[in-house]
Design a protein that fits this description.
Keywords: DNA damage, DNA repair, DNA-binding, Glycosidase, Hydrolase, Lyase, Multifunctional enzyme
Number of domains: 2
CATH topology of the largest domain: N-terminal domain of MutM-like DNA repair proteins
Strand order of the largest sheet: 1-7-8-5-6
Family: Belongs to the FPG family.
CATH superfamily of the largest domain: MutM-like, N-terminal
Strand content: 15-25%
Shape: globular
Oligomer: single chain
Pfam family, one: H2TH
Radius of gyration: 20 Å
InterPro entries: FPG_cat, FPG_N, H2TH_FPG, Ribosomal_uS13-like_H2TH
Catalytic activity: Hydrolysis of DNA containing ring-opened 7-methylguanine residues, releasing 2,6-diamino-4-hydroxy-5-(N-methyl)formamidopyrimidine
CATH architecture of the largest domain: Alpha-Beta Barrel
Helix content: 10-25%
Amino acid sequence: MPELPEVESARCLVEAHCIGAKVTKVEFNEDGSFDEKIFKDVERKAFVSALLNKTLTAAHRRGKHMWWDMSGGADSPLFHFGMTGAFSIRGKGAMKYKAFVVDTSNWPPRFAKLVVTFDNGIALAYTDPRRFGRIRLVRGDVTASPPISELGFDPLLAMPDEAAFASRFAKRGGPIKSVLLDQTIAAGVGNWIADEVLYHSRLHPEQPAKSLTPAQLRDLRDAMEDVIKTACDAGADAEMFPDDWLFHHRWGKVAGEVGGEPIQFITVGEENEREACGWREGGAQETRGRER
């Protein structure tokens, strides 16, 4: 699932190529149909009206959500990339993922659900093979309405100070891995980020959140800040991530070692929702948990 760094890379892609340009065309599925699963509670005509002949003035992100400000418009398109959602720009490239590649050799790309063309010649596509992403229209202040209003702090945009950070975990009895995945706590932290943060913090994913000591909480905060900033600075390109990251070993649940310690697989949270999580104190462990 695209997490904070991947969605930030999408926002930067839009900011670099589309800000200040006017929308001249709005198209949908490769066959021209309108995917009502992707466009959540949105009518085709209303979506076109919200974008067509309007200038994209800003691209914002909080957690795993991104939205656009359109000139003279009351409605803002809000994007959640689900499991396999991605932005790509014709001739300029696409978002990068570890698990799959967006093929832009043909235009529009395969699995395109939305293609927006601008008056500066730029064409942007939203692709989503698995169709778990959602595109909405939000009227007025996007930050004042769900889902954005329900999110916790964004670690890249507004990392709390040590005391405020610690208070988020003080009364949470669940495993720290599960708590980290709760988007009302830290927006944008998904499975691979939680894995990496716990690995570098030397915290076991099953340790109850409220049992963390002040020193452990400081380590957790520092690791979260460092992992997210490093990943965003790399444009979410895994090939540019540090060599000592768990990230390079966690995919596919293949037996192996990290730092000379075997990778173990355990379950944290719901039995049927598994995702990797690293721990490096007597072994690098992987768990799965539910992102809420």
